[in-house]
Amino acid sequence: QVQLVESGGGLVQAGGSLRLSCAVSGRTFAGYAMGWFRQAPGKEREFVAAISYNAGRIYYADASVKGRFTISRDNAKNTVYLQMNSLKPEDTGVYYCAATSSTNSGNYHYAPQYDYWGQGTQVTVSS
Which of 66, 78, 97, 112 is the most exposed place for a label (fewest CB within 10 A)? Predict the structure, then answer.
C-alpha cells in the first residue's frame, strides 16, 4: 500500500506563489510516476502536471499552467513538489497528488491511470 499526503496549500493573493508537497510512503517511491491534479468547485478533476519516475519526462496540462507551474521530485525524500507562481483566481481548487506504476507516459494526464491518491490540499487564490 502507498500513502500520499499533500501539504502546502493555503490562501494567497493573485500573483503570489505556493509550493505544494506530496510525501509518499509505503513503497519504493522511485518506482512511481507522479501526477498533480486539481478540482475546482463544481468542476471535474483535471490534470495539472506529471513527472516520470526518474524525472526524465515532465508534462504539463496546457498553456494555463505551463510557464507558471513547475513539477519536481526528490527521490531521496520520497516527495514530489508543485511550485506554483503567478497564481490566478482560476487556479483555486483542491490539489491532489497521485502515483502510478505505469510507464505509459502517454496516459499520465488520465486520472484512472493512477493507482494511489492523496486526500488533497486546498488552494485559494483571491483577486
Answer: 112
